[in-house]
């Protein structure tokens, strides 16, 4: 995966990102259709974005992390059934401030951001450097808007969760692995389609669940498409069900 930039003034920042995330430098003037890559990261004055190659030279179809503006910013600030379900599944009867949650598959961080805003301490793991770079960019922009003193405990670890779960004590492990495409793919969010093309499905998710079950102090929560079988065919102790997704809950020490 390469990184490019839209303005000569951004070259130093793009080079810094390339160094920190182990990305190649892509020639900003390169013809997008000539690449064999699926997508390219592009640093613009506003944000870092992942642009599918061959789509266009502009931002159309691009994926970026946005927690403050746009539709996601609105969702983050207003109550929604999805957030309510996530909070019920992860918090249970506990207060958010008491909980350390490892989000083992943080991706673009929407769920983790909700949990941190609720007050949980979140350790967020992402093993794909390109996704971690997008998330860091969104977190930085959100931090610039946060009022001083507002509690927000969120640590991004660019690591495989299999190395983090055994070494970082936590109450709850949260898993939302990338699943194989569904037939009704039009319903899948645009950015998930782009990310799936770049990353593929998380074929090792079953083993991640086994590891999570061995290390969480209170529970493991797995987000699934509503009609999908449980991860690893493991029957959860409880389920919190929504219209499109459900949360399978496994209590620690009962598996
Ligand atoms: C479906 S996305 C998660 C979406 C996320 N819940 C959100 O709200 O935006 C899954 C992500 O988990 C990452 N992932 C999968 N297995 C992982 C592992 N063992 N360690 C770290 N990251 C992992 C993938 O690279 C992908 O970015």
Describe what you observe in this structure.
With 255 residues, this protein is α/β, with parallel strands linked by helices. It has two domains: 2-52, S-adenosyl-L-methionine-dependent methyltransferases (3-Layer(aba) Sandwich), CATH 3.40.1630; 70-251, Rossmann fold. 32% of the residues lie in helices and 20% in strands. The strands form two sheets. Strands 7-6-5-8-9-11-10 form a seven-stranded mixed beta sheet, with helices on both faces. Helix 3 (81-91) packs across helix 4 (110-118). It starts with a strand and ends with a strand. The chain binds S-adenosylmethionine. S-adenosylmethionine is lined by residues 104-105, 107-111, 125-128, 131, 160-162, 176-178, 199, 202, 208.
Helix and strand run: EHEEEHHEHEHEHEHHEEE
Distance between the termini: 39 Å
The CATH homologous superfamily name of the largest domain equals Vaccinia Virus protein VP39
Major β-sheet annotation = 7 strands, mixed
| Tally of domains | 2
Global geometry: globular
| Ligand list | S-adenosylmethionine
The name CATH uses for the topology of the largest domain is Rossmann fold
Number of helices: 8
């Amino acid at each position: 995966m390469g990184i490019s930039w839209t303005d000569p003034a951004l070259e130093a920042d793009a080079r810094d990102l390339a160094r920190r995330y182990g990305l190649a430098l892509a020639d900003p003037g390169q013809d997008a259709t000539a690449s064999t890559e699926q997508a390219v990261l592009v640093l613009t004055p506003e944000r870092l974005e992942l642009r599918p190659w061959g789509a266009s030279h502009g931002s159309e179809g691009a994926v970026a992390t946005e927690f403050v503006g746009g539709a996601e910013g609105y969702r983050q600030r207003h109550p929604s059934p999805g957030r309510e379900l996530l909070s019920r599944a992860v918090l249970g009867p506990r207060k958010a401030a008491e909980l350390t949650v490892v989000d083992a598959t943080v991706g673009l961080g929407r769920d983790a951001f909700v949990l941190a805003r609720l007050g949980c301490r979140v350790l967020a793991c992402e093993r794909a450097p390109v996704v971690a770079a997008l998330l860091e960019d969104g977190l930085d922009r959100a931090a610039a808007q946060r009022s001083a003193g507002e509690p927000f405990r969120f640590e991004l670890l660019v690591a495989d969760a299999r190395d983090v779960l055994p070494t970082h004590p936590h109450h709850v492990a949260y898993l939302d692995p990338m699943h194989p495409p569904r037939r009704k793919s039009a319903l899948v969010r645009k950015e998930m389609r782009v990310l799936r093309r770049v990353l593929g499905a998380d074929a090792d998710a079953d083993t991640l669940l086994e590891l999570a079950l061995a290390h969480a102090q209170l529970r493991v929560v797995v987000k699934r498409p509503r009609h999908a079988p449980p991860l690893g065919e493991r029957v959860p102790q409880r389920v919190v069900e929504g219209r499109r997704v459900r949360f399978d809950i496994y209590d620690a020490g009962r598996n």
